[in-house]
Write a structure and sequence with these properties.
One of its GO terms (molecular function) is metal ion binding. By secondary structure, the protein is α+β, with helices and mostly antiparallel strands. Helices cover about 45% and strands about 20% of the residues. Helix 1 crosses helix 4 (about 115-130) and helix 4 packs across helix 6 (about 145-185). The chain starts with about 30 loop residues before the first helix and ends with a strand. The structure holds iron/sulfur cluster (SF4) (2 copies). One iron/sulfur cluster binds near residues 260, 261 and 290.
Length: about 450
């Protein structure tokens, strides 16, 4: 590849020679790709804000209720006992991301990542509106504190703080649900100081990220960005500079690149795409639009910077499928099919029966009794009348009625005594089996031990 200088590799682009922050004043992007991204981002923003309010059979579309170990993902309910199924789902998701990245590069970063969407489509747009484009902002930042500057900075940061608070509250709804959130904000602050302080801290964090830290999340912090080196290959499609067409650059060369550096001025991470694939490139497409404008002015064909693979630029290889992404697809298909199978065939209730810790057995005249703790999780969307019976022995269960009704997605926890006649106890540890019935239909069995003399 024709690179003029390689010193861009010496240090992160947003640090100066002394290691201090070099602020990126990105030019306001515009063009075909930016319009497409803007429309897509509105759908994503709608999804972020609307997901906790969308209901499927009365349940939120997404709920990550960590406190109660209950997760709802697109209407499917997962409990702590479903860790295996959740792990399969996570594994499928990671594999999907890998497959997607191998084939289409950092499409996620440029189009769907919340960091990019909020920074480029919300915070940066407000900044452009209040402080102007890159030159005006640079001038404002380097000017003395006049009334105009104080007004603009106060207005901008005031709006940033309000948006950060709104983001935190939306984020909170993903974890406690919209009803839980309404309950939280309508109850007096003094009843929930810890929640209130967490909300303020998270808001302060968002405000700091989107006001000051900005693109450094992508270039220095995000682990996904760091993985690009091992995921991308020469056939991966990404935002690429066609150096065969562009070089030698500049007025004296005869390549299509005029060396106007407009692609750099518009880049939100401040890099030069002409240096080739760099982990700082979030594939935001801003340089495609900007370079196309220059090509239009110079009367050249658009697409000097475009979505393309290295292989397609060097040798015209345009096939998307190769051995690597075929292999990933196969593994993904197997794991995802297994996930769907385990999800569809999982029991509708999850029962745990354990002997109460620290208690042995009680000796009665004709029977021996053990104390058990029982926990039943209803994974269905229906209320379930349940009944517990001992099916392995001729025993007797004593619980406050041994009939129970569990609300949809509810949990039942209790303690009961199991009596087994002495003549049925053959050793000091006997395996017993319980049956859980609903409307006289056996729906689950559970084995545990019964201790005796
Ligand atoms: S915008 Fe296009 S023509 Fe201008 S420097 Fe970048 S690649 Fe070259
Ligand atoms: S190089 Fe182009 S696609 Fe990559 S981050 Fe910069 S402007 Fe966006």
């Amino acid at each position: 590849m024709a690179n003029h200088k390689l010193d861009f590799r010496d240090k992160p682009i947003n640090l100066n020679e002394r290691g201090g922050r070099k602020w990126v004043y990105a030019k306001k992007p515009s063009g075909k790709w930016f319009t497409r991204r803007t429309i897509f981002s509105y759908f994503m923003l709608l999804f972020f804000a609307g997901a906790p309010f969308i209901r499927i059979k009365g349940n939120p579309l997404i709920l990550l209720d960590v406190a109660n170990q209950k997760f709802i993902i697109f209407g499917a309910i997962f409990w702590a006992q479903d860790t295996f199924i959740l792990a399969l789902l996570m594994l499928s998701f990671v594999l999907f991301i890998v497959l997607f990245t191998v084939t289409f590069g950092r499409l996620w970063c440029g189009w769907a990542c919340p960091q990019t969407i909020f920074l480029e489509m919300v915070f940066r747009k407000i900044e452009y509106l209040i402080e102007g484009d890159y030159r005006a902002r640079h001038k404002l930042d380097n000017s003395p504190w006049t009334t105009n500057k104080i007004f603009k900075k106060t207005l901008k940061h005031g709006i940033f703080i309000l948006i950060s608070i709104a983001m935190t509250n939306t984020f909170l709804m993903w974890f406690i649900g919209s009803d839980g959130w309404v309950e939280l904000i309508t109850s007096p602050v003094q009843e929930n100081w810890s929640g209130f302080i967490v909300m303020l801290l998270v808001s302060a964090f968002f405000y700091w990220v989107y006001s000051f830290f900005r693109e450094q999340i992508c270039t220095m912090v995000c682990p996904y960005g760091r993985m690009q080196g091992v995921l991308l290959d020469s056939k991966t499609i990404m935002v690429t500079y066609d150096y065969r067409r562009g070089e030698p650059r500049g007025a004296s060369g005869n390549g299509d690149c005029t060396d106007c550096k407009q692609c750099i001025s518009v880049c939100p991470t401040g890099i030069d795409i002409r240096n080739g694939t760099q982990l700082e490139c979030i594939n935001c497409t801003a340089c495609i639009d900007q370079c196309n404008k220059i090509m239009h002015v110079t009367g050249k064909a658009p697409g000097l910077i475009r979505y393309a693979s290295e292989a397609s630029i060097t040798g015209g290889h345009t096939k998307i499928w190769n051995a690597r992404n075929r292999a990933y697809s196969m593994v993904l298909l197997i794991i995802f099919s297994f996930f769907v199978y385990t999800l569809v065939t999982r029991p509708v209730i999850e029962t745990t029966i354990l002997r109460t810790p620290g208690l042995l057995y009680q000796d009665h005249e004709k029977a021996i009794s053990n104390v058990y703790n029982i926990k039943i999780v209803n994974k269905t969307h229906n209320e379930m009348p349940l009944e517990i019976k001992l099916i392995s022995h001729n025993g007797n269960i004593r619980m406050a009625g041994n009939k129970m009704t569990i609300k949809d997605q509810g949990m039942f926890e209790s303690t009961f005594l199991l009596f087994i006649p002495k003549d049925e106890i053959k050793s000091d540890k006997t395996e017993v089996e319980f049956g859980i019935y609903s409307n006289n239909e056996l729906i689950e069995t559970y084995k545990t031990t019964f201790v005796g003399p």
